[in-house]
Amino acid sequence: MKQYGPMEAIRTGQLPLMWLALAIIGGVSLFGIGYQVDFAKEVGFGPFIAASSAGVLSIVNGVGRGFVGWLSDIIGRKESLVLVLVVEGVAQFGLLWAGDTRNEVLFIVFAFLAGLGGGAFFPLFAALTPDYFGENHNATNYGLVYSSKLVSGLFGLGVASYVVATWGYDGAYTIAGVIAFLSAFIALFLRQPGRRERERAGAGLGSAALPAAGGPA
User: Fold this and answer.
1) Is residue 210 part of a domain?
2) Could you read off the pLDDT of 156-207 as tens digits, one per residue?
3) Contact (Cβ atoms closer than 8 angstroms) between residue 92 and residue 176
4) CATH label of the domain that carries residue 97
């Protein structure tokens, strides 16, 4: 496998895609951490439910990292990443629905899903980086991908406060859900650099060998 330096990794187009997907979903995750308890109080849930939802989110956020490692070994890292991002998007709409319907049980359930999704995507991006660009420059390459968290913090906490003040929690959670799905859509385009060319070269070699294999003995 080719070992990509930072600039080479950027030029493949895959590292910028990873950066963008992580910046988007990181903002959603931080929004949940920063505003979930306030939203629970806003819709009239008691202190116990508000605190429990935050506790569930935090605990599952950590446990989810181990679970997704097991899952990625079974279905693949990219596939696991897309699934996790979709789950995070579903959780945003689920939290909004549970809050609007004043359903405390569903609110805890979707807080669980939000924590699971929010804790799982970081290790998947970390694992995909050496898978795509090699081990030699992994610290630098993943450092570039992880730098997207600066943007995540700006939008997930800073801009989110403006959105909540302007459009309320309905608008904020709707936007969070939509951009989580956008992150999943971006992740669909992730692929190992050069893999398609290697597959074509391998297919060409196989085709060239067929006449010789089928020729006279």
Assistant:
1) no
2) 888 888 999 999 999 999 999 999 999 999 999 999 997 666 555 555 555 5
3) yes
4) 1.20.1250.20
Angle at 37 between CA 29 and CA 97, to 5 degrees: 75
Residue 1 lies inside a defined structural domain of this protein: no
**Of 144, 76, 82, residue with least CA distance to 117:** 82
Asked if residue 7 is part of any domain, the answer here is no
pLDDT tens-digit map of 65-95: 778 888 899 999 999 999 999 999 999 999 9
Distance in angstroms (rounded) separating the CA atoms of residues 111 and 196: 39
pTM of the model: 0.86
Residue 1 CB contacts under 8 Å (≥ 6 apart), including other chains: 134
Q: Which domain holds residue 19?
A: 12-205
Does residue 217 lie in a domain region?
Answer: no
* Closest residue by Cα to residue 95 from 55, 152, 57, 48: 57
